[in-house]
């Protein structure tokens, strides 16, 4: 199956018309109303009629306790603004009160948000859809027994748990400006879920997401954190997103992807500090969509609500593979979008503190970590070319013994399928100029006995996996589309 | 100009003192004050130089841990930075032998110390900042440019910061109030309480219990066979039906008197969503959908909250919003109980699109105008006061001259104190004034921005000292109240205080005096004296550790091993009898040096020069040929029959107390309030009113300024001690110290604590430095005094001058009249401080 940049996919969209009326409280930046604004834009853009629209069920306590602890969910179910005083101790224990206030309908709100993501995951499992969208989900900070960062129930974890019934490996990508700590923590010790989070790091909520946090136990190297600084713009973002994601796809070989589309990474966000435009943000959706994997899109942060609804509207259009006009259609909340009433927004003149060198260094470090992954099962095993043996043994001396084995194993066995084209582009001039990494990239290409690459995916073919390696091509196509 | 546009979130230099380095702040808010100025609410970054020393050491260890992922470093990191570290723990951590050992170990690790050459390592220290949550407000006009502060990532080398101007990094967060450092890093927790149980893959043939039908309800499907055009048409029809329905509806026709308004109301999203739902429910049959739009009951009318609400409800809502803000629960309770919360929230978000809201917003926008997003600050061009003003040539000439005469300067002032260049367009004076250091333009810029000198080796080890004193200098000339706290310079203390006065108090109370630090922490040091207890005195003689009195006298801050002293003393004392101990405890036998002439001869011999002929004036007059004074200043008291001296009895404290109470009870006259500053005469009365009065004063809780400021020990010597002192005085021919007479017989008062502790008189009591400037009248009055009167006056400056004060006025005390002479002498001046009332003299208090 060839890559289809704007391919028509079966898209399912989850929405409950009540969601917009939950209100976190005076002055609280989290406004579920933004989900309704998005919904109204979708209707008036004519995107609504192109998707399957579902009203999700309200997730039951049983469903939520697949991840969360029983007492925490029991607490969420019983707490109300009028009986808060009886729960002082538990409120402290579960971190409910300040950032995560008790508001009217709190539990219902969690039920709808979680219900959407779970239903969406089941939908993907049944292969009844290729892309599912739940803008009411994406509450990535919620912990097993603790609310955090405006999130109470972690719909993402619940959704991924559902996906794991059918998918050996699930990839979670988080483009919220905040670190996706709740999801990362939930899956920190498993190798079946890789969490990849791009976020502002340093003196920023929730404080986790250091480059060195890479997972633990079996999950070591399955948490990928990209710490970023203020002012990330579209170009920088793509320059780190593309190589990291393609490397992750290539090494982890997931069979389903969940993308948290927190819109607080947009320029001008009330709480964010990045400088992304709607286009740059949506580009991530587009890039992930191209892998053709079962794809769950959830919302997340986003506190300048006019931009959040712009963003998610655009990203819905990207998921649908439909182009929409920059001119916003009239809708109930049209006045929110003044003075320009356009879909797309311009970046600000804030300075980007992420220098290309910084991003390059981060990228290289993460690549090193990803190279530690044992080869994914089902990936073709390949004979070691004879000419590489000497080089290899030299290298082995330099590597820590414990960590050496899986890595060199992988280096030796994995074919070059999905390798970045960079090495090819380098041409023959570098063939003999072997650095530590280059020969491993080149080796498969030199090896005449390598089997046809298509065989590699034999086991994953059920999920119609296409490992898209060349990120250059789609880029070109997009520019021609734009 | 973007460069001069400062936005919220920018990191900037702030100049709060012209001579000290810029302060680095991040703009959190920009507010316009009523006077039209812009104030910046800023968050503080601290430089290394702003942090207490133990914390810096800790930070360095953390840095080391950061830069290496070695197990040692990891261990270190855990020890040092587990939780916020208190000052004490910090000090402990520094001393923790385990860490010290690890430190040594780790310096041997490859790549330790970043592998930077020393100069870069030195400069890298200037680029390290410490984030704080401390927020302050500064005038935006003090902004002096932008900089960047980023969290150091371990993939980065420090060199990448050095290669960029105005680039700083931070790793740790400093809490100035708690004086703690902590790593700004959250933690992913591991354990069954945090991770989820991972669902297993369904096995072959295993049933998934999930069915989508239970989880969702289909509301719309794109698989319907209708064209876009057909759907659009249906939507138009739905709107038309809605318009017609409004025309038929009485309540609507009142609200929407025109067809336009009805049509607009019928075009709201709720009608469209309903139309889509209808279409879906009708199985995407336009026909079926149309008929359900127009059921028998009449055309369907969909109204959202916006339309549902009456004008009076809308008014109520606005009123309540004004009153309660967006507390919808309260609004509902007190204003609109017939609405649900959901009604209110939905209405609120729609109401925000209305003109009424927009108008209100405009009013609010005017109010909010004081909050700015950015501010334009032009480049600051005024010359810095430290700029050396004369033309370069003249300046360097002058400097050379100065350098010639001033041999103390370590670096010739004609050079840049940092980079040693001799040519620069601008020169800035830097560091303590008397050292006359100057910096070239570029080094000055460096100093201002990075808070240090480019090279560490110019002053060798002492750079820190220079910088420190320079800092003190800078503080003196601070333009505004500097944020930087005043820090205690005593080793291992480093407490910080907002006000210099508080620091002074701290130094006085906690450390018993001005600390080691070179910086002038206060105008007047706390008054204190060291009272050596008998044991201390004994120890001085017995303990070997204290055998270098000259050394310790020169460097009073150098530590003494108390344990060793105690140990040696106990051993030595074990072999001493009580009498011997007393003898040892009392002031020791003076070393016999022989007559001055002999000393001079000996010295000359030692120096190798010919022994000078004994000068006649060097030869001491034999005791018996000494002239006897015709007036004995301190006549000896009469002898008792047993040969001991008889002294006038001084009342014990209890007795004084009792006597005073008696007097107070008898006389109706109230005693003068203890805290009231005494008038001159009151103080003066002391002299006339015999020694007893002095004792009586002592009883008052806060000791007021004392007229007699010989740093007199409060503890009275024991009878035996006194006898020994007198005997010695007689033997050596020295006069007895004056205070001896005042405190005979009494028991040691409780004013002095345990032996050897430094007793501190509250610094509040320490007088300001002062001197008297004698007026012409005072000078001529002095001339009229006889030699004896003058001498008497000098000795007793508080005493009223008898004798002829012809031209001067009625009462002047001796101290005032004699001014400088009397006052310069040790504590005498303090006494006279209270006597400032003397009319003809002009009192100048040194500031
Ligand atoms: Zn966020
Ligand atoms: Zn210089
Ligand atoms: Zn101190």
From TrEMBL, chain A:
UniProt biased composition (Acidic residues): 388-397
Binding locations of substrate: 99, 149, 303
All copies of domain Histone deacetylase, residue ranges: 28-317
Main enzyme class: hydrolase
Region annotation Disordered: where it falls in the sequence: 378-482
UniProt keyword annotation of Repressor present: yes
Segments of skewed composition (Basic and acidic residues): 398-416, 446-482
Binding site for a divalent metal cation: 176, 178, 264
Gene3D superfamilies named in the record: Histone deacetylase domain
UniProt EC number: 3.5.1.98
Major site of localization recorded for this protein: nucleus
A biological process term (GO) from this entry: heterochromatin formation
The name this protein goes by in its record: Histone deacetylase
Lineage: Eukaryota, Metazoa, Ecdysozoa, Arthropoda, Hexapoda
Automatic annotation (TrEMBL), chain B:
Residue stretches of biased makeup (Gly residues): 688-698
Residue ranges occupied by any C2H2-type domain in the UniProt entry: 486-516
Subcellular location: Nucleus
ELM2 domain: residues covered: 186-297
Protein's UniProt keywords contain Repeat: no
Location of region: Disordered: 683-722
Ranges of residues in domain SANT: 304-356
A Pfam short name: BAH
UniProt main location, coarse: nucleus
BAH domain location: 4-185
Keywords of this entry: DNA-binding, Metal-binding, Nucleus, Phosphoprotein, Zinc, Zinc-finger
Family of this protein: Belongs to the metastasis-associated protein family.
Listed name of the protein: Metastasis-associated protein MTA3
């Amino acid at each position: 199956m060839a890559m289809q940049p704007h391919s028509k996919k079966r898209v399912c969209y989850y929405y409950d018309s009540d969601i917009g009326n939950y209100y976190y409280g005076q002055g609280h930046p989290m406004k579920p109303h933004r989900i309704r604004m998005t919904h109204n834009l979708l209707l008036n853009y004519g995107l609504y009629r192109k998707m399957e629209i579902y009203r999700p069920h309200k997730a039951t306590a049983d469903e939520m306790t697949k991840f969360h602890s029983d007492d925490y969910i029991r607490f969420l179910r019983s707490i109300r603004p009028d009986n808060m005083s009886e729960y002082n101790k538990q409120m402290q224990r579960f971190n409910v009160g300040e950032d995560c206030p008790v508001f009217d309908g709190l539990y219902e709100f969690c039920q709808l948000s979680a219900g959407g993501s779970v239903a969406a995951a089941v939908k993907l499992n049944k292969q009844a859809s290729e892309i599912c969208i739940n803008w009411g989900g994406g509450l990535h900070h919620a912990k097993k027994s603790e609310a955090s960062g405006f999130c109470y129930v972690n719909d993402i974890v619940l959704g991924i748990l559902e996906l794991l019934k059918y998918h050996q490996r699930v990839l979670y990508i988080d483009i919220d400006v905040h670190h996706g700590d709740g999801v990362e923590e939930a899956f920190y010790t498993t190798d079946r879920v890789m969490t990849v989070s791009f976020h502002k790091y340093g003196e920023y909520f929730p404080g986790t997401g250091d480059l060195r946090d890479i997972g633990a136990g079996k999950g070591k190297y399955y948490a990928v954190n990209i710490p970023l600084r203020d002012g990330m713009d579209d170009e920088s973002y793509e320059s780190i997103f593309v190589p990291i994601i393609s490397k992750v796809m290539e090494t982890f070989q997931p069979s389903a992807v969940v993308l948290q589309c927190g819109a607080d990474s947009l320029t001008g966000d009330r709480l964010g500090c990045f400088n992304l435009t709607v286009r740059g943000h949506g580009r991530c959706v587009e890039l992930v969509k191209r892998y053709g994997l079962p794809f769950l899109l959830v919302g997340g942060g986003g506190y300048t609500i006019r931009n959040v609804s712009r963003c998610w509207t655009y990203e819905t259009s990207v998921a649908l593979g439909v182009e929409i006009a920059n001119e916003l259609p009239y809708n109930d909340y049209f006045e929110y979008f003044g003075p320009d009433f356009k879909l797309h927004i311009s970046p600000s003149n804030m300075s980007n503190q992420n220098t290309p060198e910084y991003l390059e260094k981060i990228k290289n470090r993460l690549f090193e970590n990803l190279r530690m992954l044992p080869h994914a099962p089902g990936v073709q095993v390949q004979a070691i070319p004879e000419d590489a043996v000497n080089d290899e043994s030299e290298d082995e001396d330099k590597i820590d013994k414990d960590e050496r084995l899986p890595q060199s194993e992988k280096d030796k066995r994995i074919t070059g399928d999905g390798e970045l084209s960079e090495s090819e582009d380098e041409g023959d001039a570098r063939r003999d100029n072997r650095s530590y990494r280059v020969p491993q990239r080149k080796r498969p290409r030199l090896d005449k006995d390598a089997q046809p690459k298509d065989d590699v995916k034999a086991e994953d073919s059920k999920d119609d996996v296409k490992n898209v390696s060349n990120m250059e091509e789609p880029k070109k196509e997009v520019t021609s589309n734009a | 100009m973007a460069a001069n546009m400062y936005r919220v979130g920018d990191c900037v230099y702030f100049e709060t003192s012209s001579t000290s380095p810029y302060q680095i702040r991040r703009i959190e808010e920009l507010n316009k004050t009523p006077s039209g100025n812009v104030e910046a609410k800023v968050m503080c970054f601290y430089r290394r130089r702003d942090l207490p020393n133990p914390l810096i050491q800790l930070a360095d260890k953390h840095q080391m841990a950061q830069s290496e992922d070695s197990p040692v470093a990891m261990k270190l990191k855990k020890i040092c930075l587990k939780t916020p570290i208190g000052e004490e723990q910090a000090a402990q951590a520094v001393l923790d032998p385990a860490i010290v050992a690890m430190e040594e170990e780790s310096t041997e690790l490859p790549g330790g110390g970043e592998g930077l050459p020393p100069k870069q390592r030195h400069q890298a220290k200037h680029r390290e900042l410490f984030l704080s949550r401390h927020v302050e407000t500064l005038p935006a006009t003090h902004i002096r440019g932008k900089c960047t502060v980023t969290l150091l990532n371990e993939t980065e080398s420090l060199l990448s910061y050095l290669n960029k101007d105005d680039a700083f990094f931070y790793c740790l967060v400093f809490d100035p109030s708690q004086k703690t450092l902590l790593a700004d890093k959250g933690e992913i927790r591991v354990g069954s309480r945090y991770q989820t149980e991972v669902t297993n893959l369904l096995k072959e043939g295993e049933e998934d219990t999930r069915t989508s039908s239970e989880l969702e309800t289909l509301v719309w499907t794109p698989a319907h066979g209708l064209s876009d055009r057909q759907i659009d048409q249906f939507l138009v029809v739905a709107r038309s039906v809605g318009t017609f329905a409004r025309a038929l509806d009485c309540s609507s026709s009142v609200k929407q008197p025109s067809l336009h308004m009805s049509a607009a109301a019928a075009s709201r999203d709720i009608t469209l969503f309903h139309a889509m739902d209808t279409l879906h429910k009708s199985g995407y049959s336009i026909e079926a959908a149309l008929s359900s739009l127009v059921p028998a009951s009449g055309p369907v009318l969909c109204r959202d909250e916006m339309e549902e609400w009456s004008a009076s409800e809308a008014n109520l809502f606005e009123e309540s919003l004004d009153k309660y803000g967006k507390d919808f629960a309260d609004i509902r309770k007190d204003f609109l109980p017939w609405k649900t919360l959901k009604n209110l929230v939905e209405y609120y978000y729609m109401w925000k699109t209305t003109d009424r809201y927009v108008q209100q917003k405009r009013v609010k926008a005017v109010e909010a105008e004081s909050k700015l997003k950015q501010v334009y600050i032009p480049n600051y061009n005024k010359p810095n006061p430290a700029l050396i003003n004369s033309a370069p040539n003249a300046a360097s000439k002058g400097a050379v001259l100065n350098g010639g005469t001033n041999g103390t300067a370590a670096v010739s002032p004609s050079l840049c104190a940092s980079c040693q260049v001799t040519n620069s367009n601008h020169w800035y004076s830097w560091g303590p004034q008397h050292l006359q250091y100057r910096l070239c333009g570029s080094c000055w810029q460096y100093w201002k921005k990075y808070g240090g000198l480019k090279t560490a080796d110019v002053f060798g080890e002492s750079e820190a000292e220079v910088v420190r004193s320079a800092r003190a200098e800078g503080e003196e000339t601070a333009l505004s109240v500097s944020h930087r706290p005043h820090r205690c310079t005593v080793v291992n203390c480093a407490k910080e205080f907002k006000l210099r006065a508080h620091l002074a108090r701290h130094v006085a109370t906690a450390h018993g005096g001005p600390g080691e630090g070179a910086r002038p922490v206060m105008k007047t040091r706390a008054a204190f004296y060291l009272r050596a207890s008998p044991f201390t005195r004994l120890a001085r003689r017995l303990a070997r550790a204290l055998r270098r009195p000259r050394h310790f006298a020169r460097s009073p801050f150098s530590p003494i091993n108390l344990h060793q002293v105690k140990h040696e003393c106990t051993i030595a004392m074990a072999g001493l009898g009580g009498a011997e101990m007393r003898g040892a405890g009392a002031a020791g036998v003076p070393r016999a040096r022989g007559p001055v002439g002999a000393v001079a001869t000996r010295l000359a011999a030692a120096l190798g020069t010919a022994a000078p002929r004994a000068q006649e004036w060097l030869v001491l007059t034999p005791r018996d040929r000494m002239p006897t004074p015709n007036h004995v200043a301190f006549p000896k008291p009469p002898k008792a029959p047993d040969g001991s001296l008889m002294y006038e009895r001084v009342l014990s404290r209890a007795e004084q107390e009792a006597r005073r109470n008696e007097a107070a009870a008898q006389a109706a006259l109230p005693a003068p309030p203890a805290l009231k500053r005494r008038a001159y005469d009151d103080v003066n009365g002391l002299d006339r009113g015999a020694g007893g009065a002095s004792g009586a004063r002592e009883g008052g809780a806060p000791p007021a300024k004392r007229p007699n400021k010989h740093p007199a020990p409060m503890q009275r010597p024991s009878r035996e001690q006194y006898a020994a002192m007198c005997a010695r005085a007689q033997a050596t021919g020295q006069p007895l110290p004056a205070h001896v007479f005042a405190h005979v017989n009494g028991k040691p008062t409780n004013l002095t604590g345990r032996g050897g502790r430094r007793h501190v008189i509250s610094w509040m009591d320490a007088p300001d430095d002062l001197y008297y400037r004698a007026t012409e009248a005072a000078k001529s009055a002095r001339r009229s005094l006889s030699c004896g009167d003058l001498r008497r006056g000098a000795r007793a400056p508080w005493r009223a001058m008898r004798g002829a004060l012809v031209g001067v006025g009625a009462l002047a005390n001796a101290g005032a009249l004699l001014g400088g002479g009397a006052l310069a002498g040790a504590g005498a001046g303090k006494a006279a401080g209270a006597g400032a009332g003397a009319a003809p003299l002009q009192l100048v208090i040194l500031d």
